[in-house]
Design brief:
About 0% of the residues lie in helices and about 45% in strands. The chain is mainly beta and about 120 residues long.
Length: about 120
């Protein structure tokens, strides 16, 4: 990234491949030692692999489609969000995302924390 006193613009064409998780197409827009920001598309009917974001808190804004999130002990808790909704995923929360609709789900994700921003796991505890 540019110096601390510069404002940076990242166009869609300048995004790079983000950290991989099965079932999700992440595009990294910005990353610093404390923030990760990007665009994520989940195709209709797709379910991601289980993962967490280490020491990062994640804020997700749903642009289009629907985002279903499974989390909690054994992955037994669920929530669903649609266009205009925000979600907060606590640091270390094991979860997986799915798109229960027939349209692509597009979301914007901003993570604040330190260390690696994506850890794929076999499943929730």
């Amino acid at each position: 990234m540019a110096g601390a006193d510069r404002v940076v613009v990242v166009t869609p064409a300048e995004r790079t491949a983000g950290p991989p998780t099965r079932g999700m197409a992440r595009q990294q827009a910005l990353t610093t030692d404390r923030v990760w920001a990007g665009f994520v598309r989940t195709e209709p009917g797709m379910v991601s692999g289980w993962h967490h974001h280490g020491d990062h808190q994640s804020v997700i804004y749903v642009l289009t489609g629907a985002l279903r999130m499974e989390f909690g002990p054994g992955g037994a808790e669920t929530t669903q969000a649609g266009p205009g909704d925000f979600l907060l995923v606590p640091e270390g929360a094991v979860h997986r995302e799915s798109n229960p609709t027939s349209e692509p789900a597009d979301v914007i994700v901003v993570r604040a924390g330190t260390g690696g921003s994506n850890v794929n796991v076999d499943g929730p505890a």
